[in-house]
Amino acid sequence: MSVATAGTGRIVAGRYELSTLIGQGGMGQVWTAYDRRLDRRVAVKLLRPDKVAGQEADELRRRFVRECRVTAQVDHPGLVTVHDAGSEGEELFLVMQYVDGADLADHLAEHEPYPWQWVAAVAAQLCAVLSAVHAVPIVHRDLKPRNVMVKQDGTVTVLDLGVAHVMDTDTTRLTHTGSPIGSPAYMAPEQAMGGAVGPYTDLYALGVLMHELLSGNVPFTGTTALGVLHRHLYEPPLPVRRVRPEVPEAMEALVLRLLAKDPQHRPDSAQETYEALLPLLPARGMPTGAPLDPTRPFLRPHAPWPDRARTPAPQPQATPAAENVEKPDVAGAVDEVKRLLGEGRITQAVDILGSILPAAASEHGEHSPVVRTLRKQYAATLMDDGQYRRALPELRRLADERAAEAGQADTQSLRFRYEAAQCLEQLGEPAAALAEYRALLPYYENRYVGGDPATALELRRRIGHLLLALGDRGAAHDILARLLADVQALHGPGHPLVAEVRRTLQWLGQVRG
C-alpha cells in the first residue's frame, strides 16, 4: 500500500483520509481522519518522514512499533483505543479512537478557578487509568493536561503513550541529547536525574497536574528546563490552600504526598491514591449542567456489571483416560512458536508455550531437558512480551533449580536471577531490584568463578540508577563516579557508557551544587 492523495487530503493504508493536523511533536504528527471502510472519524499518528532517515531510522521505527504494541495491551475505557497500526514505505502510522472533547489545559483555561470537586473527579479517573497502565507494567512518563481529554460526558481519556515504553534499560536513561524523556514542568526528580522510573513517577506527575488545576499554575517554573528541574529537586511546593483556602485539607495533604521528592514518601500506588480521593468525590445526584463536567460519571454512573463474583466460574471437566486420546504435538508446537517469533507475533507464541508446557511435562517429565528448554523459552518470551509479572516466578524457579544442581555461582542460575531482578525493576519495585543486583554483583566481578566484566559494569549502572530512584543521591554519585573511572580505564573515553554516566553525574553535580 502507499500513501495517496484525494480531493480532501491524503489517504493512508487505502482507507484513512487525513483531514486536520491537530498535534505535532518529536515523534510525529497527529491528524483527524475519516475511516472510509467503517464510516467513522479517527485520529491518525504518523511518524514524521524527515525523522525516518540516517542513523536514527531504525531506533525511531523500533520505538514507534513498540508504542503501538504497548498501547494496545491496555484495555481501559479511560485510555485511548488503538484501532490499527502499520507502515507504508518509510512512514509508520497508528490509528486511534477520535476523542470528542477538550484537553485538560483548555478545560482549565475555560473554567478557572477550577472547582476542587472537579479536580477530585479528574484525579480519581486518572488513578483508574494509571492502575491499568501500571499493571502491564507501563510508566506513562509524560502525564500532563495536554495529554488528558475531558469528553462530552465528563469522562477523562488519557492520550499519547508515545514515551510510555515498557520499563526497560533503554528508557531509564537520558536521551542521546542528554535530556530526560518527558516534560520538565511535570517531571519527577528521579526521572529528571535519569534514575530508574516506576509507577511512583506517574504519581508525581499526577500531583503536579492536581496542583495546577487547583492553583492555576504548576508548582515549579523557570526560564530554562534545567532551572525547572533544579526546583523540582530542591524546592518544596507551595501548599494549595494558601492560594485556594476552600480546598479541603485532605486534598492539599494528598497533593503534597504526591509531590514528595523521595518516591518512598509518595502513595504506594494509583489504587491507594484513588482510595484517598474517595471521600472527596461527590455523592450521587444531579450533574451541575456545566459542559464537560468531570463529576458527572460519579453523580450518574453507568449501570454496574452483574455481581459475577457470586457465580462460581465453570470448572473444566476431567477427560476420561482412553488409549485413543491424541497426545499433544510438542515438537509441532515448538516449530510453531519459532515461526511466530520469527514473524514478531510474540503474544501468540506466549499462549502456545503456556498451553504446551503441562503436556510436555506429562510426556517427558517435569525436570526433563525438553521441559527445561521450553520453560526457558517461555520465560524469555514473557519478558519480550512485557509480561514481567508472569515471567518473574518462572525465572526464580529456573534459578533455584539450576543453583540446586550446579551451585550458586552457576552461570545460568546467575543469568536467571539477573533477569528476575530486571523484572522487579520493570514492575516498579526498586528496593527489591537493588537488593538482588547488589547480591549478584560479587559473582560477576569475581574472575576466579568465571566473572563477566561487561555484566558487572551494567549491574553497577543499574545500581546507581536505582539509588537515584530511591533518593540516595550521595551513594548514587559515588557508585557512578567509580563506574565512570573504570569504564574509561577499560574501554577508553569513547565508549557509549562513558558519555551516559558522565551526563548523569553532570546532573547530579548540578543538583548537589
From TrEMBL:
Region (Disordered) residue spans: 299-326
EC number(s) on file: 2.7.11.1
Keywords: ATP-binding, Kinase, Nucleotide-binding, Serine/threonine-protein kinase, Transferase
Entry-linked CDD domains: STKc_PknB_like
Top-rank taxon: Bacteria
InterPro entries linked: Kinase-like_dom_sf (IPR011009), Prot_kinase_dom (IPR000719), Protein_kinase_ATP_BS (IPR017441), Ser/Thr_kinase_AS (IPR008271), TPR-like_helical_dom_sf (IPR011990)
PROSITE patterns xref list: PROTEIN_KINASE_ATP, PROTEIN_KINASE_DOM, PROTEIN_KINASE_ST
A Pfam family annotated for this UniProt entry: Pkinase
Protein name: non-specific serine/threonine protein kinase
